[in-house]
Amino acid sequence: MESKANRQLHVFFFPFMAQGHMRPTINLAKLFASKGSKATIITTSYFTSFLSKYIEAKDSGVQIDIVNIRVPTEEVGLPEGVNSVHVTSTPDMQQKFFEACGKLGPQLNQILEQHRPDCLVANMFFPWAPDVGAKFGIPTILFHGTSYFALCAQSSIFLHETHTNVLSDSEPFFIPNFPDHIEITRNKLPEFVRHEDGSHFSKLFKSMRESEFKTYGVLVNSFYELEPAYADHYPKLLGRKAWQVGPLFLYDEDCNSEGHACLKWLDTKRPNSVIYVSFGSIASFNDEQLMEIATGLEASGQQFIWVVKKEKKEEWLPEGFEERMEEKGLILKGWAPQIPILEHKAIGGFVTHCGWNSTLESICAGVPMVTWPVSAEQFYNEKLVTEILRIGIEVGAKKWKRLVGDFVKREAIERAVTRIMEGEEAEEMRSRVKELADKAKSSIKEGGSSVLDLNALFDDLRSARIENGSSST
Questions:
Q1: Which domains are seen in the chain, by residue range?
Q2: pLDDT greater than 90 at residue 121
Q3: With 60 as the cut, is the pLDDT of residue 196 above it?
Q4: Listed residue (187, 42, 186) closest to 104, CA to CA
Q5: Which partner for 443 in 145, 305, 433, 448 could form a disulfide, CB atoms 3.0-4.6 Å apart?
């Protein structure tokens, strides 16, 4: 019995096929491997090369295996080779991709039958995974790439269906059975929560919520000191264990961005004098909105780094904008080394879509935020940032949109950017977020809250393995 308890744990990780889900999963797998577990990631060919290079570049001393899986896109009418959500360019394609992911059960069944790991850590978008794991007596833990706050809000709204009692999408209501009095409107909820229309997303959301109640537990990329009331509340809502093990990216010390031109540009700027503007890898804006952002930034008088995904000719920029902003602003196309930018002393604020990875990165860098949520759970994260933590200013986005963000006028952008960068209010927010940054770094040190939770999880998994072994003999 003792030797069974001490045998190396083998954990399989099954992330959703999107960069925002892949990166924290890699960091999670590396963390498990560094603690002595054998780690294997299940993913598609789209990410295999990226994973291999990332793992080798980051830490050659930690081994992570990769098992390939193929998304059956042809079964839902998508072209062959659509192996990542980033390849989907329309809401219809995105929905079909999620439908195809719902058909991965047989492949996962074969993988688990062949390898028989001690645990499966599956993404929340695979709510059928716990049933597959249960067939082999393998405990399945759901990995949520978001905050405790968002998870509590989503579960409370789902369980109590309060949003169905309001008369319009713009009528505010209080989130029920919640540690704090937080108001939200229905048009800020994900569309698959607002409409019980029988669509694939509505069914998926219902399955996601139901799967939480039958899983072995939930892993959360957060740290206790950030949202203690919600870290305590969430397991009570579910009747399941939850372990916070983040911020996961803090375990990854190598950002691989030395020498990027924007960092050298920032070296020439005063502390807290530049605002960083970026909306993640999926959200996008049309030319009209980009024009509003440009004019709002110019009117604010602030220096900026602005990441834009568009590669075509800058027809969306005001005439003469680049010439006027030559010393004050830097526009980066496509990709930017976000963590080193946020950690640079010159950065004083961050205009963000409130994706959880970006939100955590900003908090850990001690940078207050202008919140501009677009989709997913981002409007919940905005509430955490602006009302609970009080380290951010809302820009005024009012509607959940799947791919293209809600339209915001230049005056609102100018006002929010100015507030986050200047004056006593900005200094108070900066002070609060820097305290949280210190707590985040402490949480992943020996004896920190996240390390203690991770150790508790390993103890639970070893106990579960012994119980499963005993019940099968």
A1: 2-69+104-246+446-471 (3.40.50.2000), 261-440 (3.40.50.2000)
A2: yes
A3: no
A4: 42
A5: 448
Least confident of 72-81, 215-224, 267-276, 376-385: 72-81
Contact 330, 297 (CB under 8 A): no
The yes-or-no verdict on residue 2 having pLDDT over 70 is no
Distance CA 363, CA 359 (A): 6
Mean pLDDT score, 142-158: 90
DSSP codes of every residue in 312-377:
S--TTSPTTHHHHTTTTEEEEES---HHHHHHSTTEEEEEE---HHHHHHHHHHT--EEE---STT
Under DSSP, the state recorded for 136 is T
Q: Scanning the structure block, which residue is given the tokens 């809250």?
A: 449
Residue type, 99: E
Alpha-carbon 284 to chain mean position = 17
The DSSP H or E segment spanning 243 is strand 241-244
Per-residue tokens: 344: 């640079």
Residues 278-288 have pLDDT tens digits of: 998 777 788 89
Residue with tokens 């990329």: 221
* CB-CB contact of 375 with 402 (8 Å): yes
340 CB neighbour count, 10 Å cutoff: 18
C-alpha distances in Å from residue 84, one per residue of 15, 18, 119, 284, 400: 11, 6, 25, 17, 22
Q: Which helix (H) or strand (E) holds 425?
A: helix 423-443
Residue 453 CB partners (closer than 8 Å, separation 6+): 224, 243, 244, 245
User: Could you give the angle at which helices 19-34 and 356-365 cross, rounded to 10 degrees?
Assistant: 60
Nearest 10 degrees: CA dihedral of 193, 197, 203, 209?
30
As beta bridge partners, residue 41 has 13, 66
Whole-number Å distance between alpha carbons of 58 and 36:
17
The DSSP call for residue 90 is S
For residues 38 and 264, the answer to whether their CB atoms sit within 8 Å is no
Cα–Cα distance, 414 to 306 (Å, whole number): 14
Output the six-digit token pair for 48. 């295999």
Share in percent of the chain as helix, strand, coil (round to 5): 50, 15, 35
Convert the pLDDT of each residue in 16-61 to its tens digit. 988 888 889 998 998 999 888 999 999 988 888 777 776 665 555 6
Residues in Cβ contact with 180 at an 8 Å cutoff, skipping those fewer than 6 apart: 229, 387, 388
Q: Provide the 3-class DSSP secondary structure of residue 176.
A: coil
Determine how many CB atoms are found less than 10 A away from the CB of residue 417.
25
**Rounded CA separation 316/217 (Å):** 47
